[in-house]
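Run log, item B.
One chain of 225 residues. Sequence copied directly from the ordering sheet:
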Amino acid sequence: LAAYGPRDRFTPVIDGELVPGQVGKLFAAGRQHRVPYLTGGNSWEASLGRAIGGGFSPEIAARLLPPADQARLYPDLAPEARADAIFGDLVILAPARYLAARMQATGMPVHRYYLTYLAEDRRGRQPGVAHADDIAFVMGSLEREPGLRRVSARDRAASELLGRYWVQFARTGDPNGPGLPAWPRDTVAGTVVEPGDEVLVREGFAAARLDWHVARGEALLARLP
């Protein structure tokens, strides 16, 4: 608590013992533990920014990209959808790609996901899988999920699939197992499994967009002492 400063928000606190330095720089230097790594995000992570608002809103996040880059990287999106996509990339998906690449550099296996399966009761009520919606699927607790009025058979099947992936990873360091759709390792080019209405494997997932944010973050890291 003594190490916690006024600028610390949604970040690990550098206490000099458990976290000895800025996390991004520690990973870049290969000082993280060498363990199998699973990471990813959901299709509407901007729900977090919409809930908090103010300086953490998607519209504020979108200002970080020059208009020309927005048009190039996020074409054919209405203003609100574009701001939501930028927020999700900036706050969740690009950091996941950065850390995944740093773990790959240590020789560790990395598996990355992009969840697009939306509970049937939420379809038409929200534009995608909100921040933290994946937790109830993985933990098998959909019946206790706030705001979810009914749980369909397809929802339960999706929950069983994700739960089996996560348990298999916890047991073995690899989410693949008997009867599960193949989940290939992430690559430098970007390979993710997309659990949606069906399980897809996406190569080069949002690479141009995420690489833009990663490069910006690396430039900021380089300015830190």
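Observations after the first pass:
- The beta strands are 37-42, 110-115, 191-195, 199-203.
- The helical segments are 23-28, 47-52, 58-62, 67-73, 79-105, 133-139, 153-172, 207-222.
Flagged for discussion on Thursday.
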